[in-house]
Structure formats: structure tokens, C-alpha cells
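Thread title: Can someone regenerate the structure for this chain?

I was given the following input by a collaborator and told the matching C-alpha cells would be attached. They weren't. Posting the sequence so someone can regenerate them.
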Amino acid sequence: MKPVDFKQFGKKLSVYRKLFRSYLTKTENNPRGIDKITPSLEKEVWKEIDCLSCANCCKKMTPTFTEKDLKRISAHFHQTPEEFKKKWLQKDSNKDWVNKQQPCQFLNLKDNKCSIYAIRPEDCSGFPHLSKKKWSEYAHVHKQNIDYCPATFRLVEKIIENVGEVK
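Best answer:
Regenerated them for you:
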């Protein structure tokens, strides 16, 4: 497994972004067996992509903090959920609680490790959600994530190679 080459990732993204987004839109309503092959393709992706060499999700995105996350994480810091929110979070346009800053305040930039990994938000623990749900329920999320996550990009590449074009 090699570290993520951001220069190469950026080049591929600029070439394939539009095509991949179009493909994802087409497959939302016509998954063509993608659900069946995604788990094995996901295993292949993780043999190629080293998350700790990337951490783009923590650097360029923010998780949504659920009420359960807020209670668990604030307790860890001996704060109330309100104190935690006031210090670290803000509401986004969807009225969800998200980080005020990027990169994430809990990311150690020296080694790309999360300082609250054991109690991290549920959104983080599942990211990038490659095969967690049915394709038709999650293709729209992958459409956003291909811009940031080399693993998501690579999964979509592999799906196209295995499933082919969608009319």
C-alpha cells in the first residue's frame, strides 16, 4: 500500500469528476448489481489506499454530530453538550451540528490520527461509507465524496470497470 499521491489524485479527479458524477446519478435508480460486488471491491480498495497517508476527510470535510455523539464526546472532555457545542461546533445550513474549523480540531496533523478515535462521531467511524448501505441509498453521498476521498474515487473506478456503462 502506497501513500496517497495528491497530485495524481487531483489530476484524475479533474479528468473524471464529471463522468463519475454522471455515472453515479444514473446508477442511483438502476444499481445493476452494484450492491453485490461492492463488498469485494471495497476490500480491494483498502489494499490500495492508506487512509492515514490522506486524512482528507478530516482536513476538508466535517462530520455531522448526532445527539448521541455530543453526549459521549462532551462527557469525555468533562463538559456538557452545550459547552462542547459552544467551543467546537456550529450549525450548518441543514441545522446539523458540524465543526467550526477545518481541519478537524481532533486531527493530529503530524500523523493524521484522530485524538478521539475511540469515541469519534458515528459519521467518522463509517466514513467513507463504501458498502454500508444499498447503493441506491448512498450513491448521492459518493457523488460528493469523490472530490475528497481517494478510496471513494477508486471504488467508483472499480465499479465502472466491473459493471460498465449505464445508459
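The chain is about 55% helix and 5% strand.
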